[in-house]
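Rotation project, supervised by the postdoc (A.L.). Task for the rotation student: set up a whole-complex structure prediction and record inputs and outputs verbatim in this book. Inputs entered:
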Amino acid sequence: MNTSTHTALEQEVAQLVIDTLNLEDLQATDIPPQQPLFGDGLGLDSVDALELGLALQKRYDIRIASDDKDARRHFATVASLAAFVASQKAACAN
Amino acid sequence: MSGAPLATPRHWSAQRERGSLLLMRFTALVARRCGRRLLSPLLHLVVMYFFLTGRTARRSIRDYLARLAAFSERTELRPTPRRVFAQFMAFADCLLDRLDVWRGALQLEQVRLFDPDGIRTQLLASHHGGRGQLLVGTHLGNLDVCRALAELGEQVPLNVLVHTHHVAHLNGLLGEAGEQRMRLIQVSELDAALMLDLAQRLARGEWLAMAGDRVPLHEGRRVTVDFLGHAAPFAQGPWLLAGVLGCPVNLVCCIKREGRYEIRMERFLDAPTWTRGRRDDAISSWAQRYADRLADWCLLAPQQWFNFYPYWSVADA
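Outputs recorded:
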């Protein structure tokens, strides 16, 4: 679990984070999959979350429900975001 | 950039919602049954009652007039009991006009349109595959007359973002009034789902309208700007949406001058963008520029300021 190598999807999600938020001085590999995105980690805030949420939904054609109590958990790290995207895409495919 | 605490012990949405909802219901009912001539004395009585019993409302209007007079150096605007009372009566008139709008009695030809940037043309164009835009309105004057906008825009759907919890009820009232193109969307919390919904509406060519001069319940979503020479909390919401959705933003205002309504539309931001580190600065500067325009408009129609609650920061009182 504690590996810092990215899966293909994690790499993609990390790049989306960088592109959406214009973190130009960073590369996808600079964001370890397990590094917290908010607070002490990458230092994102609630408005970043809005931008990121919008970009994710558009890019992967998924939905983040308003009443999803787990949304905060999904957005914790690149790894959790990637897992969330994968599960949503699987759910949509069914 | 959290805003200063509000002076009012109760938030405006708690304070006015119930009353105005009852009033709207009553107005709608009587309007259907009786019409303006009969309603007018009744409504003026109701508003007089609000004037006599609403100490906070009276004091708030007095503050507003005093600040407007000092800011503009126009002594004739200084508050007197008569002028404060006139503000309440202007509100009664505004409600009566609203009624005419609801009945469809106010025709587009009766409204003067000031639209130097051609916003109306863009509104019409978005019906044919264009992208939607943001409209930021104000509680100066009569926002309801902007429903003539629905006519201005012909079939372009207008989504009005509101804080109220009474959306279902109000949508019902609108439906009863025969309004189909305007929809109210409750926005208490900005979240990813709402953002997607709004982004999709814009992509479909729908427009989003909201007021820029009411602060949200959420303390953190406020920004303090200078309004008429004093610090006042303003909403971050419209500017956050602008930045996140990245669509053009326009200001709209509808005031009555010489007995005739005037809709003013103007471009505010062509393509709002921000860099992450300077986002708070961007929001502050947009909110400040909006407050400055609002001050200009207040001077065009000093009596039509219908925010009957303490508007400025308490620290600045």
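Student's summary: Chain B is about 45% helix and 15% strand.
Supervisor addendum: Strands of chain B lie at 112-114, 134-137, 158-162, 182-186, 207-211, 222-227, 230-235, 249-257, 260-269.
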